[in-house]
Structures are given as C-alpha cells and as structure tokens.
Input
Amino acid sequence: MLRDITLGQYYPADSVIHKLDPRVKLAGTMVFIISLFAFHSIEAYIVATLALAAVIRISKVPFRFMVRGLKSIIMLLLITVVFNLFLIPGTPVVHFWKLTVTREGIETAVAMAVRLVYLIVGSSVMTLTTTPNNLTDGLEKAMRPLGRLHVPVHDIAMMMSIALRFIPILLDETDKIMKAQMARGADFESGNLMQKAKNMVPLLVPLFISAFRRANDLAMAMEARGYHGGEGRTKMKPLVYVSRDHMAYLILLLYLIVMFIASRVNVIETLVISVLHW
Output
C-alpha cells in the first residue's frame, strides 16, 4: 500500500510535458483543480476527462503507474461517497432501515468521487514530470511578487519542495521498518481498528527518529556546502519561457473557454430528460 503512493515521485521520460517550464505546470494544475470545483455539468466533466487523458498520454508516463496512487485513497474515497449518499437530503430513491439514498446524494457522491480522483491524478502528473529542483525554482518564481510584501518566498518554496521529496523517502523507510519488525514477529494486519492503531506505535517511534536524523543530515549537508537562502542566490539553470510554454498557456486558456461553454450547454441532461419523457 505504501509503495502505491506516487505523490512526490519523479518519472523520467522524454516528453513535451517534462520539458515544459515548471511554472506552466503549476498554473495548469491549479487551473485544472479549480475547474473541477467551478464547473459542475456532465459536459464539463467530459472535457476535463479528455484533457487529463491527453496530458497523461503526452507525458509518456505509464497509465498504470499514474493511477497507482489512487489505491492509497480508497478508504477516503469510500467515506466521502457514503457520507454524501446518506446525509444529503432531497428526492428519495432508495430507503432501507433508517437510511435514505436521495437523487441529490447520488449526484453529489459521484461528483465528489470524480473530483477527488482527478485531483490526485492531476497533481501526480505535475510531480511525476517535474524534478524537485525545477519544482522549487518554479514555486519561487511564481511566488516572487509576494517578496515585495516581505514574504520569505525562497524559504517557503524550499520547504515545500523538500516536503514533497521526503514523501517517497519516508514511505520507503516505513516499508523497511515494517518488514524488519514483521520478521521479528510483529503483526500489523490482525485485530480490530483500535488494535491495528496500537500495533502502529512501535512503527511510529523508529520512523520519527529516522525522519529527524535525515532532517539533521540534510541541514548539515546544506550548511557544509555554504547554502543560504534569500537574495543573491543564482541559478545554474535559470527558468526562461520558450515557444512551447507560450503555446501551453494558450491551450490552457482554450481549456478554460471550452469548460465554461460546456458548463452552460447541458446537452446530455436535455437528452436524458427527453428520453425519459418519451
């Protein structure tokens, strides 16, 4: 299960998406996520699906590897769907015991499930096609206007990048600790929920110790190399927009326009209503 989390990992490949400026990918990810919550029609979700499928195809990242991260949110997905099914009032569809499934609940549950899945996959596209260094530079460049307000932009970008980079490292460390303790007779699978939570305590202690040790080693390595954030730092590979980045921004604008039009034209809903009346 831990190896199924792909957030923070980088998948090397020779694709147009990999070569894009990280600022373009950051903007594209934010626009895609916002569009999922801003536009609610079936047509808009179809457009978002086609756009996401096209980006995954162009990125040359295997689809199985891209969706592998969804296994880690199955429980969250199920909880979201169940809560929306039974707790949203509206027109009753199914009733059993004290629970009632409404039409509005079904629509909301499906919409929330789709949004959550697309949010994870869309974010994974960015991290899988962007190295941690490029991601740090892109975040710093994108947030540079906040520097005029005395916001420590470089420090924030560095912390976010290190946090993302440490996700796969800590997951791998957790997997190693679990295997070592299971070899010594530890049991992380049997028992009820409370028992499983108690069984995780021996795992958390060495994991926290390892995390602090890695953080200390990283800090010492940065100090030994004379690292200092803030003004005056130069870049080995400065970020410069090229023609493909401008084209990507135009495609992003076109995506927003198509999403806006799709959210206003309810063709599928009209056809369904017509068929039901017929």
The longest helix spans residues 153-183.
